[in-house]
DNA sequence: AACTAGCTCAACCGCCTGCTC
DNA sequence: AGAGCAGGCGGTTGAGCTAGT
């Protein structure tokens, strides 16, 4: 089993830095034919490069709409804010920075902003996290890879939280859960109804977003009550914006 | 002038996801 | 349903450059 490597090292392919001729061939070919299939493009264009390499070169360097040069203060500010919100989702971040490439933003972050970011914002303890270890995600970073919840509800249940499971499919339909909030929000604990509040987020905020199953960094449980206090509604709306067309 | 450390950025690598058959 | 494939993504590497000693 296992997939065939895209550009096996045995093949007679050019590697390393692109030369001007290669750039020209690639750019000319794409200008005429577009970039249909990257895997067959090098062969058709007459390039001794693998498709992935061609794609990368086009996306990060040859594309006509690329804005090169210094990143402005506004862009930098946006990068910081988006990174705070999204973590290392460079493709999403770059979607809000027209003309920039994910590679450029990633490099800029790693060389300019990472150190400053960790100084400015102690909440961002780690700049990287992986899906396989969601506990490593910064606590205020929305994990955008989480699947869309079909029923976006805010479920507050002090006594009978729905069962949590590691099953990814079950997680997909798991309602957004805020443990223990009801007892803070409503001191009348005798009222069982008040302890089981279901809110449609669209009716409680101006955002129409779908909520994600957040996990607490430390114990893999849903967020504590402080989550609501810490949570920045501006970021909720920004997240919503990012996921809109 | 020579050396070194740090920085920048293009390119590569390997994994993941979605699509097709 | 599941295997294979292509595209996309994020992390990492390494060559070239610059500033400091």
From TrEMBL:
UniProt keywords, alphabetically: DNA-binding, Nucleus
Which Gene3D superfamilies does the record associate with it?
A: Homeodomain-like (1.10.10.60)
Q: Where is the Myb-like domain?
A: 10-62, 63-113
Region annotated Disordered sits at 116-138
Q: What sequence ranges are listed for the domain HTH myb-type?
A: 10-62, 63-117
The protein, known as = Uncharacterized protein
One Pfam family, short name? Myb_DNA-binding
Which InterPro entries does this entry report, sorted A to Z?
A: Homeodomain-like_sf, Myb_dom, Myb_TF_plants, SANT/Myb
Q: Which organism is this protein's natural source?
A: Stylosanthes scabra
The protein's location, in the record's own words, is:
Nucleus
């Amino acid at each position: 089993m296992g997939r065939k490597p895209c550009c096996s090292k045995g093949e007679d392919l050019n590697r390393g830095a692109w030369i001007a001729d290669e750039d020209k061939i690639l750019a000319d070919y794409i200008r005429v034919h577009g970039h249909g299939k990257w895997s067959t493009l090098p062969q058709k264009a007459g390039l001794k490069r693998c498709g992935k390499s061609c794609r990368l070169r086009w996306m990060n360097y040859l594309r006509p709409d690329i804005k090169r040069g210094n990143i402005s203060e506004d862009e930098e500010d946006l990068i910081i804010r988006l990174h705070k919100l999204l973590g290392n989702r460079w493709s999403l971040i770059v979607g809000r920075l027209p003309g920039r490439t994910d590679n450029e933003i990633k490099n800029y972050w790693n060389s300019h902003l990472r150190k400053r970011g960790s100084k400015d914002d102690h909440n961002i303890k780690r700049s990287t996290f992986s899906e396989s270890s969601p506990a490593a995600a910064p606590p205020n970073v929305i994990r955008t890879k989480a699947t869309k919840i079909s029923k976006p509800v805010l479920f507050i249940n002090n006594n009978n939280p729905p069962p949590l499971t590691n099953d990814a499919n079950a997680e997909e339909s798991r309602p957004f859960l805020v443990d223990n909030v009801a007892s803070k929000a409503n001191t009348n604990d005798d009222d069982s109804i008040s302890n089981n509040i279901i809110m449609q987020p669209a009716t409680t905020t101006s955002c129409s977003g779908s909520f994600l199953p957040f996990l607490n960094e430390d114990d893999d449980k849903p967020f504590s009550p402080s989550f609501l206090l810490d949570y920045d509604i501006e970021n909720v709306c920004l997240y919503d914006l990012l996921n809109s067309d």
